[in-house]
User: What shape does this take?
Amino acid sequence: MKLLFAFAIIVIGLAVVFGTPDAWNEYKNKHGKKFNATDDAQRKKNFLATDAIITKHNSQKNGTYKLEHNQFSDMVDYRTHACLSPVRDQKQCGSCWAFSAITPLEFARCKKNGTLLALSEQHLVDCEPYDYGCNGGWYTNAWYYIKNGALGSAKQSLYPYTATNTTCKFTSSMVGAKISTYGNLQPLNATNMQLAVQSNGSISVAITVTNSFFYYSGGTYNDVACDNKTIPINHAVVIVGYGAANATNYWIVRNSWGTGWGQAGYVFIQRGVNKCKIEQYPAVILSVV
Ligand SMILES: *[C@@H]1O[C@H](CO)[C@@H](O)[C@H](O)[C@H]1NC(C)=O
Ligand SMILES: *[C@@H]1O[C@H](CO)[C@@H](O)[C@H](O)[C@H]1NC(C)=O
Ligand SMILES: *[C@@H]1O[C@H](CO)[C@@H](O)[C@H](O)[C@H]1NC(C)=O
Ligand SMILES: *[C@@H]1O[C@H](CO)[C@@H](O)[C@H](O)[C@H]1NC(C)=O
Ligand SMILES: *[C@@H]1O[C@H](CO)[C@@H](O)[C@H](O)[C@H]1NC(C)=O
Ligand SMILES: *[C@@H]1O[C@H](CO)[C@@H](O)[C@H](O)[C@H]1NC(C)=O
Ligand SMILES: *[C@@H]1O[C@H](CO)[C@@H](O)[C@H](O)[C@H]1NC(C)=O
Ligand SMILES: *[C@@H]1O[C@H](CO)[C@@H](O)[C@H](O)[C@H]1NC(C)=O
Assistant: This one.
């Protein structure tokens, strides 16, 4: 799966939101959490977002269950979010780049529209002129094509996945979403990527896959083999959350190899150390039409 990187880096600044310090300090004391200034700002933002969800839920009189803070309140996990479609399978086609491009677009469209609509990877495989169909590509090229070439992304239902290179069948009547703005995030800045995940739900990333990755089944992936600079980046995936376990920070990464692979289709990859080069080419969809 050859990947090409063709667009200039656009650094996207994401503001940190400040809120009630008391609840946050109480929470940290209760759970024995201590962070440096950078981490504290991010964790606090996560905590406040969770706090809003909990307060809203518990204020609804019809609720039959209650929520409360626990040790996970400062982490982010969109795996069960209503705007994240079920994990898909690219099959024997090097179209990872198309799957990596479509998930954040579906998520952004759903956040705006309120309902999830499945969009078409096959549209990109067949029609996107800057990449190589089943032989590889880049998610940012796909977004460029959707925004400026096709003027929209086809609905999955009208342009279903075949895992083959076929001739382009796209017509404008198939469009289910349009991109307004997207960009590359600052490379090698995990904190900034966390902010983007927090704000935007999912971000596209490229990684180097080596042998052990194919057989990953659980835990935080930290093989040194994929850090090797002589092995090129060869896969594209999507970050949908982050957390910490067993004294290691991780990204929650959505793959496109079906739910039978990894943790129901997901992998935890070590965060903050550019593991498998995952922090090299992060990109995000900022707005949809
Ligand atoms: C803050 O702590 C995190 C996690 O321990 C670490 O990765 C990061 O480098 C630290 N940042 C600073 C500015 O010390
Ligand atoms: C409870 O009521 C709120 C509106 O107050 C509504 O949005 C929510 O869907 C209801 N939940 C259930 C479980 O009925
Ligand atoms: C959401 O999308 C559906 C189907 O594309 C459309 O009919 C509806 O008007 C959209 N709703 C909003 C709030 O944009
Ligand atoms: C698929 O199409 C691309 C051009 O978009 C071409 O480079 C590639 O060789 C084709 N692959 C197969 C398996 O036909
Ligand atoms: C990394 O991103 C954070 C959050 O956007 C920002 O405050 C910080 O300045 C960035 N670090 C560098 C080295 O640019
Ligand atoms: C992404 O995050 C930025 C920064 O908070 C925000 O301005 C933008 O509306 C978000 N876009 C989506 C699609 O979530
Ligand atoms: C943490 O360690 C436990 C026990 O070894 C393991 O079951 C779990 O998968 C680990 N979690 C992560 C995210 O690494
Ligand atoms: C990196 O990969 C190259 C090519 O596969 C290999 O020859 C080399 O031994 C690897 N280096 C390390 C440190 O594993």
Observations:
- Residues 1-19 have pLDDT under 50 and may be disordered.
- The radius of gyration is 19 Å.
- The pocket of 2-acetamido-2-deoxy-beta-D-glucopyranose (ligand 6) is lined by residues 14, 108, 111, 199-200, 285-287 (CB under 6 Å).
- The helical segments are 21-31, 37-59, 96-113, 121-127, 139-149, 190-200.
